[in-house]
Amino acid sequence: MTLCDLPTATGRRPLWRRWLLGLALLLALGSSRAGPEVSTLMAPPLRLVANHWEPYTGQGLPYGGVAGRVVQAALLRAGYRSEITVMPWARALTTAAQGQADGIVAIWSTEERRVALLFSEAYLHNELSLFHRAGLRSVPQSLAELRGYSVGVGRGYDYSDEFLRDQRVQKEPAVAVLPNLLKLARGRVDLVLEDRRIVAYQLSQHGRDYPELQQLQAAPEPLMRLPLHFAISRQRADAAEIIERFNRALEAMRRDGSLEQMLAVPQLAAR
What we know:
- The chain is built from nine helices and ten strands.
- The chain is an alpha/beta fold.
- It folds into two domains: 126 residues, D-Maltodextrin-Binding Protein, domain 2, CATH 3.40.190; 99 residues, D-Maltodextrin-Binding Protein, domain 2.
- The protein is globular.
């Protein structure tokens, strides 16, 4: 028995001794709760990939794009540091699926992709519309009405399982959005299926250089609305834990308004 353990005349430990014991207990509880976050923050950063998909992801954009900002903020809140490398889409998808990168910042979920990747809850939705040249009399309003049209799409983009499986739609892939829009403006395809915000960004960046783009118009209503996710390679043993913690952080960001604030930027304004 030490001097600190000696009871007083009342049979109780001194008040200061009880205070120290309480402080030690609080510190122990605090460290047990913060332990996983502290340990993962000290670990090497997650290696994430993204493609040139402005304004959502891309080089030279603030925070690596709107999607990059949301994903990195949620991961940091969940206790993970991260780094983003931007590359062409097909390479980004292969790199993440094969485990050469830990995850991918912005991706749509399909049956094939879920084999290699574990998906988070959606943090925003892409509204994909059909773009056409001015003067088109009738714009298709559904996937079934696309049959007989040539439709410009992104190479390697999977859109939705229904769209991919419909072999009666003539899909004309391009490596990037701008070449697709130029093909449409020059009459090489009938339609282009693309996110409204992405097209608006491309027009703001390249409209002066390519005045023919000004004739392009969007259908009044989106053809499809796709949830956008963060995904982790299933080759990571802790993939499920990362996604679980990411989802909890994302929900907290929804509750405190920080997610809405991040998405309320001019690049994502309704058009």
